[in-house]
Design goal:
Layout lengths: L3 H17 L2 H7 L7 E5 L5 H10 L4 E6 L2 H11 L5 E5 L3
Parallel strand pairs: 1-2, 2-3
Helix pairs in contact: 2-3
Amino acid sequence: MQSDFSFRVMSLEFRLRDFFRPPERILREAGIRNGMTVLDFGCGPGGFSLAAAKLVGPGGRVYAADGGLFLLAGGNRRTSQFINTETHEAVS
C-alpha cells in the first residue's frame, strides 16, 4: 500500500504534468469527441478521466480503472460531478 507522503508527491507530479501538457488537449489530439466511450486504465487521480468526461459529454461514457485504492479515491472525488463516469478497482 502506498504511503500518504508518496501519494502526495505523485499527485504533485501529476499536477505539474497536467499544467504543461493538459490532458484535454492530448485527448482532443487523439480524436476523443462527443458520444464516445473511453477506458482510462491506470487512471491515477483522474486527470485524464476528468478531461475525457468533458470531451465525450453526456452522450458518452468514461470507465476509469486503477489498482491503487488511494488513486481511485482521488479519481472518485474529481469525477463524481460527471454522471457519465464510473471508477473501478483493477485487480490482478
